[in-house]
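S.,

Sequence below, as promised.
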Amino acid sequence: MTDVKATGWSKGPSRFDIDGKVGSPILPASTTAALTVSQILDEAPTSRFHRRAVLISGMGFFTDAYDLFVIGTVAALVKVQWNLSTTQTSWVTGAAILGAFVGAFVFGRLADIFGRKVVYTAVAAIMIFGAVASALAPSFLFLVIARLILGLGIGGDYPVSAVLMSEYSNRADRGRLVGLVFSMQAVGLVVGPLVGIVLISSGVSDPLAWRILLGLGALPAAAVIYFRRRCQSRPGSRHSSRAAPIRRRRNFTNSPMERSTRPLSPTTANI
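The prediction came back faster than expected:
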Protein backbone atom coordinates (compact mmCIF):
# COMPACT_ATOMS: atom_id res chain seq x y z
CA MET A 1 0.00 0.00 0.00
CA THR A 2 1.49 3.38 -1.02
CA ASP A 3 1.74 5.90 1.81
CA VAL A 4 0.89 9.53 1.13
CA LYS A 5 2.34 11.89 3.73
CA ALA A 6 1.38 15.51 4.20
CA THR A 7 4.25 18.01 3.94
CA GLY A 8 4.79 21.75 3.71
CA TRP A 9 1.72 22.74 5.68
CA SER A 10 3.07 26.15 6.67
CA LYS A 11 4.06 27.48 3.25
CA GLY A 12 1.68 28.11 0.38
CA PRO A 13 -0.86 25.56 -0.86
CA SER A 14 -0.91 22.24 0.96
CA ARG A 15 1.15 19.52 -0.67
CA PHE A 16 2.03 15.88 -0.17
CA ASP A 17 4.58 13.31 -1.31
CA ILE A 18 3.74 10.14 -3.30
CA ASP A 19 6.78 7.90 -3.54
CA GLY A 20 9.03 10.96 -3.43
CA LYS A 21 6.91 13.02 -5.86
CA VAL A 22 5.22 16.18 -4.62
CA GLY A 23 1.66 17.04 -5.58
CA SER A 24 -1.33 18.97 -4.35
CA PRO A 25 -3.93 17.16 -2.26
CA ILE A 26 -7.64 16.78 -2.76
CA LEU A 27 -8.18 16.77 1.01
CA PRO A 28 -8.38 19.82 3.34
CA ALA A 29 -5.06 21.37 4.32
CA SER A 30 -5.87 20.81 7.98
CA THR A 31 -5.34 17.06 7.55
CA THR A 32 -2.06 16.27 9.28
CA ALA A 33 -2.07 12.47 9.49
CA ALA A 34 -0.35 10.26 6.96
CA LEU A 35 -2.84 9.10 4.31
CA THR A 36 -2.92 6.06 2.07
CA VAL A 37 -3.96 6.11 -1.56
CA SER A 38 -7.12 4.22 -0.62
CA GLN A 39 -8.04 6.91 1.90
CA ILE A 40 -7.56 9.62 -0.71
CA LEU A 41 -9.89 7.81 -3.11
CA ASP A 42 -12.43 7.33 -0.32
CA GLU A 43 -12.55 11.09 0.25
CA ALA A 44 -12.38 12.18 -3.41
CA PRO A 45 -15.36 14.07 -4.85
CA THR A 46 -17.50 12.31 -7.47
CA SER A 47 -16.11 12.99 -10.93
CA ARG A 48 -16.06 11.82 -14.53
CA PHE A 49 -13.70 9.08 -13.46
CA HIS A 50 -16.40 7.57 -11.21
CA ARG A 51 -19.03 7.82 -13.96
CA ARG A 52 -16.73 5.96 -16.32
CA ALA A 53 -16.24 3.23 -13.72
CA VAL A 54 -20.04 2.93 -13.46
CA LEU A 55 -20.23 2.52 -17.24
CA ILE A 56 -17.52 -0.14 -17.31
CA SER A 57 -18.97 -2.20 -14.47
CA GLY A 58 -22.56 -1.63 -15.56
CA MET A 59 -21.86 -2.85 -19.08
CA GLY A 60 -20.80 -6.18 -17.61
CA PHE A 61 -24.01 -6.50 -15.60
CA PHE A 62 -26.06 -5.51 -18.66
CA THR A 63 -24.41 -8.27 -20.70
CA ASP A 64 -24.95 -10.83 -17.95
CA ALA A 65 -28.64 -10.04 -17.66
CA TYR A 66 -29.22 -9.96 -21.42
CA ASP A 67 -27.63 -13.35 -21.97
CA LEU A 68 -29.42 -14.95 -19.03
CA PHE A 69 -32.94 -13.69 -19.68
CA VAL A 70 -33.07 -13.72 -23.48
CA ILE A 71 -33.03 -17.49 -23.34
CA GLY A 72 -36.69 -17.55 -22.34
CA THR A 73 -37.70 -16.32 -25.79
CA VAL A 74 -35.07 -18.46 -27.49
CA ALA A 75 -36.15 -21.67 -25.72
CA ALA A 76 -39.74 -21.23 -26.88
CA LEU A 77 -38.59 -20.92 -30.50
CA VAL A 78 -36.01 -23.71 -30.35
CA LYS A 79 -38.46 -26.14 -28.72
CA VAL A 80 -40.75 -25.91 -31.73
CA GLN A 81 -37.97 -26.00 -34.33
CA TRP A 82 -36.12 -28.99 -32.88
CA ASN A 83 -39.10 -30.73 -31.27
CA LEU A 84 -37.48 -30.72 -27.85
CA SER A 85 -38.95 -32.43 -24.83
CA THR A 86 -39.64 -30.58 -21.60
CA THR A 87 -36.42 -31.91 -20.08
CA GLN A 88 -34.35 -30.83 -23.08
CA THR A 89 -35.93 -27.37 -23.02
CA SER A 90 -35.06 -27.10 -19.34
CA TRP A 91 -31.42 -27.84 -20.14
CA VAL A 92 -31.40 -25.11 -22.79
CA THR A 93 -32.86 -22.67 -20.30
CA GLY A 94 -30.76 -23.61 -17.29
CA ALA A 95 -27.33 -24.40 -18.77
CA ALA A 96 -26.09 -20.81 -18.48
CA ILE A 97 -27.29 -20.52 -14.87
CA LEU A 98 -25.42 -23.71 -13.98
CA GLY A 99 -22.29 -22.34 -15.64
CA ALA A 100 -22.67 -19.03 -13.81
CA PHE A 101 -22.77 -20.86 -10.48
CA VAL A 102 -19.44 -22.53 -11.22
CA GLY A 103 -17.88 -19.48 -12.86
CA ALA A 104 -18.51 -17.23 -9.87
CA PHE A 105 -16.44 -19.48 -7.62
CA VAL A 106 -13.67 -20.16 -10.13
CA PHE A 107 -13.09 -16.68 -11.54
CA GLY A 108 -13.68 -14.93 -8.24
CA ARG A 109 -10.69 -16.79 -6.84
CA LEU A 110 -8.62 -16.32 -10.02
CA ALA A 111 -9.21 -12.56 -9.81
CA ASP A 112 -7.61 -12.55 -6.36
CA ILE A 113 -4.59 -14.45 -7.69
CA PHE A 114 -3.95 -12.90 -11.11
CA GLY A 115 -5.67 -9.53 -10.74
CA ARG A 116 -9.07 -8.31 -11.83
CA LYS A 117 -7.95 -6.70 -15.08
CA VAL A 118 -6.78 -10.07 -16.45
CA VAL A 119 -9.99 -11.79 -15.36
CA TYR A 120 -12.12 -8.92 -16.78
CA THR A 121 -10.76 -9.59 -20.23
CA ALA A 122 -10.92 -13.37 -19.87
CA VAL A 123 -14.58 -13.56 -18.80
CA ALA A 124 -15.65 -11.08 -21.49
CA ALA A 125 -13.85 -13.16 -24.13
CA ILE A 126 -15.60 -16.27 -22.81
CA MET A 127 -18.95 -14.51 -23.08
CA ILE A 128 -18.23 -13.51 -26.68
CA PHE A 129 -17.26 -17.06 -27.58
CA GLY A 130 -20.29 -18.49 -25.81
CA ALA A 131 -22.71 -16.07 -27.45
CA VAL A 132 -21.38 -16.66 -30.97
CA ALA A 133 -21.24 -20.44 -30.47
CA SER A 134 -24.81 -20.43 -29.19
CA ALA A 135 -26.00 -18.49 -32.22
CA LEU A 136 -24.34 -20.99 -34.57
CA ALA A 137 -25.46 -24.09 -32.68
CA PRO A 138 -26.49 -26.86 -35.12
CA SER A 139 -28.00 -29.17 -32.50
CA PHE A 140 -29.47 -29.36 -29.01
CA LEU A 141 -26.31 -30.70 -27.37
CA PHE A 142 -24.09 -28.09 -29.00
CA LEU A 143 -26.40 -25.33 -27.80
CA VAL A 144 -26.39 -26.62 -24.22
CA ILE A 145 -22.58 -26.79 -24.15
CA ALA A 146 -22.26 -23.31 -25.67
CA ARG A 147 -24.67 -21.90 -23.09
CA LEU A 148 -22.76 -23.63 -20.32
CA ILE A 149 -19.53 -21.96 -21.48
CA LEU A 150 -21.34 -18.63 -21.72
CA GLY A 151 -22.53 -19.12 -18.15
CA LEU A 152 -18.95 -19.56 -16.93
CA GLY A 153 -18.15 -16.10 -18.25
CA ILE A 154 -21.30 -14.62 -16.76
CA GLY A 155 -20.58 -16.09 -13.36
CA GLY A 156 -17.03 -14.78 -13.49
CA ASP A 157 -18.20 -11.31 -14.40
CA TYR A 158 -20.55 -10.87 -11.44
CA PRO A 159 -17.94 -10.72 -8.64
CA VAL A 160 -15.30 -8.75 -10.52
CA SER A 161 -17.72 -6.10 -11.82
CA ALA A 162 -19.17 -5.53 -8.37
CA VAL A 163 -15.74 -5.30 -6.73
CA LEU A 164 -14.49 -2.91 -9.41
CA MET A 165 -17.10 -0.30 -8.57
CA SER A 166 -16.74 -0.82 -4.85
CA GLU A 167 -13.00 -0.17 -5.09
CA TYR A 168 -13.25 3.03 -7.09
CA SER A 169 -16.25 4.55 -5.30
CA ASN A 170 -15.70 7.32 -2.81
CA ARG A 171 -17.08 6.83 0.66
CA ALA A 172 -19.91 9.35 0.39
CA ASP A 173 -21.39 8.02 -2.86
CA ARG A 174 -20.39 4.35 -2.73
CA GLY A 175 -23.93 3.06 -2.18
CA ARG A 176 -25.37 5.17 -4.99
CA LEU A 177 -22.64 4.28 -7.49
CA VAL A 178 -22.80 0.56 -6.75
CA GLY A 179 -26.59 0.74 -7.01
CA LEU A 180 -26.30 2.32 -10.46
CA VAL A 181 -24.11 -0.58 -11.57
CA PHE A 182 -26.63 -3.16 -10.37
CA SER A 183 -29.47 -1.24 -12.04
CA MET A 184 -27.88 -2.03 -15.41
CA GLN A 185 -28.89 -5.62 -14.82
CA ALA A 186 -32.53 -4.56 -14.91
CA VAL A 187 -31.89 -2.77 -18.22
CA GLY A 188 -30.43 -5.91 -19.75
CA LEU A 189 -33.34 -7.96 -18.44
CA VAL A 190 -35.80 -5.70 -20.28
CA VAL A 191 -33.79 -5.18 -23.48
CA GLY A 192 -33.47 -8.92 -24.28
CA PRO A 193 -37.20 -9.70 -24.59
CA LEU A 194 -37.80 -6.35 -26.33
CA VAL A 195 -35.29 -7.25 -29.03
CA GLY A 196 -37.06 -10.59 -29.43
CA ILE A 197 -40.43 -8.87 -29.86
CA VAL A 198 -39.00 -6.50 -32.46
CA LEU A 199 -37.42 -9.32 -34.46
CA ILE A 200 -40.48 -11.53 -34.46
CA SER A 201 -42.94 -8.72 -35.17
CA SER A 202 -40.78 -7.47 -38.06
CA GLY A 203 -41.26 -10.75 -39.92
CA VAL A 204 -37.91 -12.41 -39.24
CA SER A 205 -38.29 -16.19 -39.36
CA ASP A 206 -38.17 -18.02 -36.02
CA PRO A 207 -35.02 -20.07 -36.85
CA LEU A 208 -33.16 -16.87 -37.70
CA ALA A 209 -34.66 -14.77 -34.92
CA TRP A 210 -33.35 -16.88 -32.03
CA ARG A 211 -29.89 -17.04 -33.57
CA ILE A 212 -29.79 -13.26 -33.89
CA LEU A 213 -30.97 -12.90 -30.29
CA LEU A 214 -28.15 -15.08 -29.00
CA GLY A 215 -25.52 -13.58 -31.28
CA LEU A 216 -26.31 -10.02 -30.21
CA GLY A 217 -25.06 -10.91 -26.75
CA ALA A 218 -21.51 -10.78 -28.13
CA LEU A 219 -21.75 -7.04 -28.86
CA PRO A 220 -21.96 -5.69 -25.30
CA ALA A 221 -19.36 -8.26 -24.24
CA ALA A 222 -17.00 -6.85 -26.88
CA ALA A 223 -17.68 -3.36 -25.54
CA VAL A 224 -16.77 -4.65 -22.08
CA ILE A 225 -13.34 -5.72 -23.35
CA TYR A 226 -12.76 -2.33 -24.98
CA PHE A 227 -13.65 -0.32 -21.89
CA ARG A 228 -11.94 -2.64 -19.43
CA ARG A 229 -8.65 -2.41 -21.32
CA ARG A 230 -8.65 1.20 -20.13
CA CYS A 231 -9.20 0.22 -16.53
CA GLN A 232 -6.69 -0.73 -13.84
CA SER A 233 -7.05 -2.17 -10.37
CA ARG A 234 -7.42 0.38 -7.61
CA PRO A 235 -4.15 2.22 -6.84
CA GLY A 236 -2.54 0.74 -3.79
CA SER A 237 -3.87 -2.79 -4.34
CA ARG A 238 -1.32 -5.57 -4.52
CA HIS A 239 -1.83 -5.90 -8.28
CA SER A 240 -1.44 -2.21 -9.08
CA SER A 241 1.45 -1.49 -6.73
CA ARG A 242 3.83 -3.35 -9.04
CA ALA A 243 2.93 -1.15 -12.01
CA ALA A 244 4.48 2.13 -13.10
CA PRO A 245 4.36 5.18 -10.80
CA ILE A 246 0.96 6.81 -10.49
CA ARG A 247 1.98 9.88 -12.47
CA ARG A 248 2.86 7.67 -15.43
CA ARG A 249 -0.27 5.49 -15.48
CA ARG A 250 -2.27 6.67 -18.44
CA ASN A 251 -5.24 4.61 -17.28
CA PHE A 252 -5.73 7.03 -14.40
CA THR A 253 -5.59 10.23 -16.39
CA ASN A 254 -8.94 11.40 -15.07
CA SER A 255 -8.93 9.55 -11.77
CA PRO A 256 -8.99 11.28 -8.38
CA MET A 257 -5.51 9.91 -7.70
CA GLU A 258 -4.08 11.35 -10.89
CA ARG A 259 -5.73 14.71 -10.31
CA SER A 260 -4.26 14.71 -6.84
CA THR A 261 -0.73 14.83 -8.31
CA ARG A 262 -1.46 17.92 -10.40
CA PRO A 263 -0.56 21.29 -8.86
CA LEU A 264 -3.57 23.32 -7.72
CA SER A 265 -3.87 27.04 -7.40
CA PRO A 266 -4.12 28.56 -3.89
CA THR A 267 -7.82 29.11 -4.41
CA THR A 268 -8.49 25.43 -5.18
CA ALA A 269 -5.98 23.78 -2.91
CA ASN A 270 -8.57 23.13 -0.23
CA ILE A 271 -11.14 21.30 -2.39
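Strands lie at 3-7, 15-18, 21-23, 35-36.

Coffee later?
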